[in-house]
Amino acid sequence: MTSPPPLLFLIAVILIHSISSFTYFPKYHSLSALPHRPHPTRFLPPPSSSLSCTSSDFVQCKITVTDHTSGKYYVAQAKNEATNFRKLTGKLSDSPGRCEMIVEGKKKQIEGFLRWCKKGAGLGGVPGQVNEEWSEATGVFTSFTVDSE
């Protein structure tokens, strides 16, 4: 095997150096110097805000799904859907053949979560029986937790 010509080697070193020193944020020299942007929260805005929500926007729904919920896949997908996609709080209790969820959040988000529950989890999701009971939000939940029996 022959060594690369010195000119080609020099061009490669210059190219690699110029790419590594290129930044997408010319104003800042490192990513740690970027301005901090707070993460959006799940809580109500202050009442003095012009965008404040009414208490009727936040509700609680008890969802019971029977049939086709056995296994950890449905539980993991339900938690993922509720927390990451819908920003809901609540509790999920899993037992063989039955899954009970108490979720709190904006009514629109809960309605979307109910549609997901009725569709079933995953690509080959087979929906089960879905029952729902609506009530006022209590505000007891700060996150979405899973209790398995």
UniProtKB/TrEMBL annotation:
Answer whether the UniProt record assigns the keyword Signal to this protein.
yes
The segment(s) forming the Acylphosphatase-like domain are: 60-148
Signal sequence annotation:
1-21
PROSITE patterns with a match to the protein in the record: ACYLPHOSPHATASE_3
The record's listing under InterPro entries reads: Acylphosphatase-like_dom
Key words, A-Z: Signal
Q: Which Gene3D superfamilies match?
A: 3.30.70.100
Tell me the protein's name.
Acylphosphatase-like domain-containing protein
In which organism is this protein found?
Triparma columacea
Species lineage: Eukaryota, Sar, Stramenopiles, Ochrophyta, Bolidophyceae
